[in-house]
Specification:
Layout lengths: L7 E5 L4 H12 L3 E6 L2 H11 L4 E5 L5 H11 L7 E4 L14 H29 L2 E6 L3 H4 L8 H21 L4 E8 L12 H9 L9 H12 L10 E4 L6
Parallel strand pairs: 1-2, 1-4, 2-3, 4-5, 5-6, 6-7
Helix pairs in contact: 1-8, 3-4, 4-6
Length: 247
């Protein structure tokens, strides 16, 4: 199937473990992708894998509003962005009583400011065309307070901000052809989980009703659905992908 034939998607954090899966799935569904990541070498390697006729690497610090504007203005000069996937981010595990101001600000910047920066530069083109899909990657930590990963208060707070941004922006642009939704993944079966001890893995699965880790391929497929014509009337949704953890 090529549900996204002729569409152009921009994915942030695209060279990471989840981002790569998302990009491959979008290309398989017919979309061209703009691979946005701070790691230039990995972005370029992924673009080479997907084919430079279908994938364009862009290396930029997403926490820098002006740098993002410069890079994305160039990206959109000849062709707009139809689908935006805000996937960049990352969590710090620090007990709140030991959290310093720098770490707090860094978590907000990496996980919330980046979503604002990229969306702010991409949204005007979508509004002009009266067509666009924005899909933010939040976290189940924004819904459950971070029970799966304790001592991640700064991360949970930033992702809760992503949830608020998603809902408010969805209302703001709902009658202008743009939908805005967010996914709230639980623990994912990414390479980092291979470092879990048997005890840690058992304790993790005990908190998940399905006793399954999320599969990146399933997350990517959900993104494709939300970006497809079938989801034209879905907006402002925060969709948990957590095996029932947040019930």
């Amino acid at each position: 199937m090529t549900r996204l034939q002729g569409k152009r998607a921009l994915v942030t954090g695209a060279a990471g473990a989840l981002g790569q899966v998302i990009c491959r799935r979008l290309v398989a569904e017919g979309a061209d992708v703009v691979i946005v990541d701070l790691a230039r070498d990995r972005a370029e390697a992924l673009a080479a894998e997907l084919g430079h006729s279908r994938a364009e690497p862009v290396a930029v610090d997403l926490t820098d509003f002006d740098a993002v504007g410069e890079a994305l203005t160039a990206v959109q000069r000849e062709r707009g962005v139809d689908i935006l996937v805000n996937g960049a981010g990352g969590g710090a595990v620090v007990p709140f009583a030991e959290l310093d101001a720098e770490t707090w600000r860094t978590q907000l910047s990496r996980n919330l400011d980046t979503v604002f920066n990229v969306t702010r530069w991409v949204l005007p083109g979508m509004l002009d065309r009266r067509d666009g899909r924005i899909i933010n990657i939040a976290s189940i930590a924004a819904v459950s307070g971070g029970r799966l990963v304790r001592n991640a208060t700064a991360y949970a707070t930033a992702k809760a901000g992503v949830v608020g941004l998603t809902k408010a922006l969805a209302i703001e642009v709902a009658d202008r052809g743009v939908t805005v939704n967010a996914l709230a993944p639980g623990a994912q079966a990414t390479p980092g989980r291979d470092l879990d001890s048997a005890e840690r893995r058992a304790a993790l699965l005990d908190q998940i009703p399905t006793r399954l880790l999320g599969e990146p391929e399933h997350l990517a497929e959900t993104i494709v659905f939300l970006a497809s014509p079938a989801a034209v009337n879905i907006t402002g949704v925060i969709l948990p992908l957590d095996g029932g953890h947040s019930i």
